[in-house]
């Protein structure tokens, strides 16, 4: 009974934070919503579909790098390393790596989306029964979730951050996040991180406007989530998905464009939308190799090496905490 009551309170607290963030973002002159809310259960499943799509080259090319260099990467870690994966999602990329590692100490996936994480934990425990798994549901950009992992002792830690998730953060936020990662590592511990390279805008825009319209559904699902969890009354047919490359900011921006003047309400707050205005829902920053190395240096890491796919579209960096 006690556990049921505390989970009700936890849900209410999370909903309060969600509501606060939504009202704050939609109350701005340029409306915005934090991209972490794209990942409810439906959003996480849609993201899996995006990763499988032909147009979204990032996942495929990153997976190629892991398959080609997994032994070399695992050797960099050394034996008895604890792998921590913030934003692990379905934890698909880690199994190959854990399998190549010498006596891994264990694996700690962290994700904001509980359903997908718990399903992945079950799968890993079955396929790699010798690996200990401690998963945590929470926001990896907040220290609270990292504090929950303090009890897991290890000879060496490596933070594994694939999927170009770092690209979702504006450069200053990315620096703050990498500093938070560094503060949870000791000198010589590692960071294995995937970043998408700056490239032709046609390829980039195709990746975020896939021909099966899965990214469109992923983007619109955020409004549906707000309707379901916060009792809002968005009419999804009054918004359209738009994703484009912004060359000066070196990022793909994802927006929901309002198609007609109208108002909606969320928890007694009325919000007006005018035709043509947008809700900015996600950024995906692209980096050059040198640009990302410099971000690593500013954030408390020393770049050790990097690997690329044959077409040089994507990079996996390995760095050590100083
Ligand atoms: C771009 S996906 C990458 C998933 C997976 N790591 C991969 O490489 O395919 C981002 C993942 O991070 C999670 N996520 C996004 N923001 C988060 C946050 N602030 N805290 C925890 N998880 C977050 C999402 O639920 C999602 O699973």
What's the structural blueprint in terms of helices and strands?
Elements: H1 2-26, H2 41-52, H3 57-77, E1 81-86, H4 94-100, E2 106-111, H5 114-127, E3 136-137, H6 143-147, E4 156-161, H7 171-183, E5 190-196, H8 201-207, H9 214-230, E6 239-246, E7 251-258, E8 262-266, E9 269-273, E10 278-285, H10 289-298, E11 301-308, E12 314-321
Parallel strand pairs: 1-2, 1-4, 2-3, 4-5
Antiparallel strand pairs: 5-12, 6-7, 7-10, 8-9, 11-12
Helix pairs in contact: 2-9, 3-4
The structure holds S-adenosylmethionine (SAM).
Descriptive overview:
The protein is of the alpha/beta class and 322 residues long. The chain is built from ten helices and twelve strands. The chain has helices spanning 2-26, 41-52, 57-77, 94-100, 114-127, 143-147, 171-183, 201-207, 214-230, 289-298, and strands at residues 81-86, 106-111, 136-137, 156-161, 190-196, 239-246, 251-258, 262-266, 269-273, 278-285, 301-308, 314-321. Strands 3-2-1-4-5-12-11 form a seven-stranded mixed β-sheet, sandwiched between helices. S-adenosylmethionine binds at residues 36, 39, 44, 47, 51, 87-89, 93, 110-113, 139-141, 162-163, 165. S-adenosylmethionine is lined by residues 36, 39, 44, 47, 51, 87-89, 93, 110-113, 139-141, 162-163, 165.
